[in-house]
Amino acid sequence: MKRKEIIELKTKPVAELKKFVSDADEKLRAMKFDLAAGKVKNVKDIKALKKDIARALTFINEKQK
Fold first, then answer.
1. Where are the domains positioned within the chain?
2. Which of 4, 13, 16, 45 keeps 20 to 30 A from 59, CA to CA?
3. Residues 24 and 49 sit within 8 Å (Cβ to Cβ)
4. Phi/psi class of residue 12: alpha, beta or left (left: φ > 0; alpha: ψ in -120 to 50)?
5. Span 40-60, pLDDT tens digits
């Protein structure tokens, strides 16, 4: 995720962040199934998606405090 995307993610409201997390979780689940089936070519995408989810959850926690 680029710096500009991180800043945009940080400025989103909590509801949009929660939607982003749920969509990303679904995408991650699909990628894990594809990995087990041998369809995923770039395993780094899974790691990057996990980091994006963690960033979004961090921003949600910051805004709720």
1. 14-64
2. 45
3. yes
4. beta
5. 889 999 999 999 999 999 999
